[in-house]
Amino acid sequence: QVQLVQSGAEVKKPGASVRVSCKASGYTFSSYSLCWIRQAPGGGLEWMGWITPYNGNTNYAQNLQGRVTLTTDTSTSTGYMELRGLRFDDTAIYYCARGGGSGYRYWGQGTLVTVSS
Amino acid sequence: EIVLTQSPDTLSLSPGESATLSCRASQSLSSSFLAWYQQKPGQAPRLIIYGASSRVTGIPDRFSGSASGTDFTLTISRLEPEDFALYYCQQYGMSPRTFGRGTRVEIK
């Protein structure tokens, strides 16, 4: 069965960087885009971007351009989201999800990133 | 960017009643790329409808989706206790992909 398993919670100081991983299993990793979505405490869903593993093409939300980088390692079927210059309002649960033409059916369990001084 | 406006913010209903949730797109959007998600506290969102009206395998048939121009509707007939949750619409046809702000269906 399809599974996306994310790395554990992180606590970071303002200005630092964080990298969250998302290990996929149960499907051909290169055949689907990998998307990242975040959700601030008590807030809604914010789409961050996607990456196509087979060629590394990316597309980012404009408000995160320059601070976020999505990468994949096809040898381990793992995706990574790096966010730099962390601010207090980057505190959120970060999700990865498998993309495709039928919505985001499969999601990771979420990774809480807390930015605190 | 396509803005999705969901209404109402909150629906207060009793089990057994029907819920009608609205999602309006700020510009033309292919129905093929509109999805609805359900989210419960502490859980990741769950896809329930894609392509505006196609139900995901395993989702009860009391959930249905429809589209009319830039207006999309999720209908939940005969609410069950497990249906009380947050619901988000999302368009995944154009970048940036965008989500609505959500509608909370709560027990009256």
Number of strand segments of chain A: 10
What is the CA-CA span between the terminal residues of chain A? 40 Å
Q: What is the gyration radius of chain B calculated from CA atoms? A: 13 Å
Overall mean pLDDT of chain B stands at: 95
Strand content of chain A: over 45%
Question: Can you describe this structure?
Answer:
The complex is a heterodimer of chains A (117) and B (108). By secondary structure, chain A is mostly beta strands. Chain A is 0% helix and 49% strand. Chain A has strands at 3-6, 10-12, 18-25, 34-39, 45-52, 57-60, 68-73, 78-83, 92-98, 111-115. In chain A, the strands form two sheets. A six-stranded mixed beta sheet of chain A has the order 2-10-9-4-5-6, with no helix packed on it. In chain A, strands 1-3-8-7 form a four-stranded antiparallel beta sheet, with no helix packed on it. In chain A, strand 4 (34-39) and strand 5 (45-52) form a beta hairpin. Chain B is mainly β and 108 residues long. Helices cover 0% and strands 49% of the residues of chain B. Chain B has no helices and eleven strands. Chain B has strands spanning 4-7, 10-13, 19-25, 34-39, 46-50, 54-55, 63-68, 71-76, 86-91, 98-99, 103-107. In chain B, the strands form two sheets. In chain B, strands 2, 4, 5, 6, 9, 10 and 11 form a seven-stranded mixed beta sheet that branches. A four-stranded antiparallel beta sheet of chain B has the order 1-3-8-7, with no helix packed on it. Chain B starts with a strand and ends with a strand. The relative contact order of chain B is 0.34. Chain A binds chain B through residues 35, 37, 44-47, 50, 59, 61-62, 95, 99, 101-105, 107-110, and chain B through 1, 32-33, 35, 37, 44-47, 49-51, 54, 56, 88, 90, 92, 95-102.
Topology:
The complex is a heterodimer of chains A (117) and B (108).
Chain A: E1 3-6, E2 10-12, E3 18-25, E4 34-39, E5 45-52, E6 57-60, E7 68-73, E8 78-83, E9 92-98, E10 111-115
Parallel strand pairs in A: 2-10
Antiparallel strand pairs in A: 1-3, 3-8, 4-5, 4-9, 5-6, 7-8, 9-10
Chain B: E1 4-7, E2 10-13, E3 19-25, E4 34-39, E5 46-50, E6 54-55, E7 63-68, E8 71-76, E9 86-91, E10 98-99, E11 103-107
Parallel strand pairs in B: 2-11
Antiparallel strand pairs in B: 1-3, 3-8, 4-5, 4-9, 5-6, 7-8, 9-10, 9-11
